[in-house]
Design goal:
Elements: H1 3-83, H2 87-169, H3 173-186, E1 191-195, E2 198-199, H4 208-216, E3 221-222, E4 229-231
Length: about 240
C-alpha cells in the first residue's frame, strides 16, 4: 500500500476511536441524570404518599375536636334545661341537643371514611417505600458503574489523544492538512477504498483515469464527487461491474 495512505489510515483509525470514546463519554452524563431522576421520582411519590397519611390524620383529629365541641354544646344545653322553667325554652334547648347529636353522627361517619382512606394511604406508603428503596439501591449501583466507566473512558481518551499527536506528525503536512479538513466536514470516513469503480464514501462512479492513478499508488487521489481520499489494495476490484 502507498505509504502516505497507510499512515493516513492509521491516523483515521485513531481518530475514529477518539470520536467513539468522546461519544460514549457524552452519553454518560445524560444517563446518570436519567437514573437520578428515576430515584427522585420514586422518592417524590413516597413523599406524596406520606403527606396523604399526615393529611388524613390531621383531618381525623379535626373531626375528633368537632365531636368534642358538639358534646360540650350538648352538656351546655342540658345544664340550661335544668335551669329553665319555661316549656318553650326547654323544647328549644332539646331541639338544639338533637341537632348536636345529629352532627355527631355525621362527623363519626366522616371519621369512618377517613379511617378507611387512612388504611389505603398507609398501604401506599409501604409500597412506595419499598419501591423508593429499591430504586435508590439500583441507581446508586448503576451510577457507580457509570462513574467507573467514565473514569476508564477518560483514561482511554487521554492515551488515544497522546498517541494521535505522534501518528499525525508521521504524516506529510500537506496530506495531513487535507485529511483533517475533510475529517471536519465528512466525519470519520475520509480515507476510503475503491470497489467496483465507485468511491467507498459517496458511492459515485469514478472516471477511468482516477482509477488508473489510484491503482498506480504514486500519489494521493481524491474523489471528484465528494473529495474523499481514495486508496487501492489488491483485494479490491477497480473495474466497474458489468
Amino acid at each position: 500500500m502507498f505509504e502516505p495512505i497507510e499512515k493516513l489510515l492509521i491516523l483515521q483509525d485513531r481518530d475514529r476511536n477518539i470520536r467513539r470514546v468522546e461519544q460514549e463519554l457524552g452519553h454518560i452524563g445524560p444517563e446518570r441524570e436519567t437514573l437520578r431522576t428515576k430515584a427522585a421520582t420514586t422518592q417524590t411519590q413516597l413523599d406524596v404518599a406520606k403527606n396523604r397519611v399526615k393529611q388524613i390524620e390531621s383531618d381525623r383529629k379535626r373531626l375528633e375536636l368537632d365531636v368534642e365541641g358538639q358534646k360540650s354544646q350538648i352538656e351546655k344545653y342540658a345544664n340550661q334545661q335544668l335551669q329553665t322553667r319555661k316549656n318553650e325554652e326547654y323544647r328549644a334547648l332539646a331541639h338544639e341537643i338533637e341537632l348536636c347529636k345529629e352532627a355527631i353522627v355525621k362527623i363519626e361517619d366522616e371519621e369512618i371514611v377517613l379511617m378507611e382512606q387512612g388504611e389505603v394511604a398507609q398501604r401506599e406508603v409501604t409500597r412506595a417505600t419499598l419501591e423508593a428503596n429499591e430504586a435508590r439501591k439500583q441507581v446508586e449501583s448503576q451510577v457507580t458503574q457509570l462513574d467507573q466507566r467514565e473514569a476508564n473512558l477518560k483514561q482511554e481518551l487521554a492515551e488515544l489523544q497522546t498517541g494521535r499527536a505522534e501518528l499525525a506528525a508521521a504524516v506529510e503536512e500537506t496530506a495531513r492538512t487535507r485529511y483533517e479538513r475533510l475529517y471536519k466536514s465528512k466525519g470519520d470516513n475520509v480515507v476510503v477504498g475503491v470497489q467496483h469503480g465507485v468511491c467507498g464514501g459517496c458511492h459515485m462512479k469514478l472516471p477511468a483515469q482516477i482509477l488508473v492513478t489510484c491503482r498506480s499508488q504514486s500519489e494521493i487521489v481524491g474523489c471528484i464527487n465528494c473529495g474523499r481520499i481514495l486508496y487501492y489494495t489488491r483485494d479490491m476490484e477497480l473495474a466497474a461491474a458489468e
